Automatic annotation (TrEMBL):
Gene3D superfamilies, alphabetized: P-loop containing nucleotide triphosphate hydrolases
Ranges of residues in domain ABC transporter: 8-235
Assigned protein family: Belongs to the ABC transporter superfamily.
Molecular-function GO terms, alphabetical: ATP binding; ATP hydrolysis activity
SUPFAM superfamilies: P-loop containing nucleoside triphosphate hydrolases
A Pfam match: ABC_tran
Record's protein name: ABC-2 type transport system ATP-binding protein
Length: 298
């Protein structure tokens, strides 16, 4: 084992289903102590990648590494995994179910019961421990699923859509719990369709499309490398910007245009031309994660 907490590395990971290459040479790192958001449209390959990381689906190419070496079954047994197909028993009582799972993960009955009770209380489910899972709302069932993945103090967390169907308060309490784990150096990989949520929660993100990584890094890295857009206003109208060299017109409405500009030279030329036409505003626009995402998967 190395001194620093371990990272999870995915290198050139590949999986085919017949002729369809669902995951195509995907590489990224989930750093210790970081929440890494895994985003992509339906069918992008997120679940398939997570299944290969967890060893529940055979790998056709590339590898998964943990702590600087090829991952083993023993490593994976120390991970917390929330699969897309939620694996709990609807007819079993919530607490019994968590205790059973904790014991499967090598905990004593007593430790599993104590930790399960603590987690359920954290999720506001302290009064529901004796209820059958199926009697809980879907959002609360989801919380129990996440509790199941956290129970044994996992070394890493792989969570497939952990926030889907949760209300904002439930999201916040789950994020608090996950942050507690990252503070102890645990790497967390979670998939999501909700870009605004990912932008708020994650330290790093990986954007997947058509089985390939289209962009990866921190939100700030991706914003800095994102499209250079500006808002420009001139009187009486801004239509003249069409056809300016090095300038891609995203939108023009009346006196205001949103522009994507190739480089500094094109920007300086444009500003000079605008000054001759009554420039009233020229502001850089910070791209949102949605802009970056759209650009990355285009
Ligand atoms: N067991 C399977 N058999 C055949 N094709 C599969 C199988 N599992 C996944 N695929 C295909 O692999 C591709 C990636 O699917 P995957 O479920 O990994 O995407 P995803 O990004 O998780 O999507 P979603 O957000 O909808 O869950 C899709 O084209 C899907 O149809």
């Amino acid at each position: 084992m190395s001194q620093s907490p371990p990272a999870l590395e995915v290198i050139d990971l590949t999986r085919r289903f017949g002729d369809n290459t669902a995951v195509d040479a995907v590489s990224f790192v989930v750093e210790p102590g970081r929440m890494t958001g895994f985003v992509g449209a339906n069918g992008a390959g997120k679940t398939t990648t997570m299944r290969m990381i967890m060893g529940v689906l055979a790998i056709h190419g590339g590898e998964v590494r943990w702590d600087g070496r090829p991952i083993t079954a023993a490593d994976r047994s120390r991970f917390g995994y929330m699969p897309e197909e939620r694996g709990l028993y609807p007819k079993q009582q919530v607490l019994d179910q968590l205790v059973y799972l904790g014991q499967l993960r090598g905990m004593t009955r007593r430790d599993a019961a104590a930790e399960a009770t603590r987690l359920l209380e954290r999720f506001g489910l302290g009064g529901r421990t004796r209820d059958k899972l199926e009697s809980l709302s879907l959002g609360n069932q989801q919380r129990v699923q996440v509790a199941a993945s956290l129970l044994h103090g996992p070394a890493a967390l792989i969570l497939d859509e952990p926030f889907s169907g949760l209300d904002p308060v439930a999201v916040d309490s789950m994020v608090d719990l996950l942050r507690e784990r990252t503070r102890h150096g645990v790497p967390v990989l979670f998939s999501s369709h909700q870009l605004d949520l990912v932008d708020r929660l994650c330290d790093s993100l990986v954007i997947l499309s058509g089985g390939r990584v289209r962009a990866a890094g921190t939100g700030d890295d991706l914003r800095a490398a994102g499209p250079r857009r500006f808002r420009l206003s001139t009187e009486p109208d801004a239509g003249w910007v069409r056809g300016e060299p090095g300038v891609d017109v995203v939108d023009v409405e009346g006196t205001t245009a949103v522009l994507q500009i190739e480089d500094d030279a094109a920007r300086d030329r444009l500003v000079r031309r605008a000054a001759e036409r009554g420039l009233t505003e020229f502001t850089p626009l910070v791209p949102t994660l949605s802009d970056i995402y759209r650009e990355a998967v285009r």
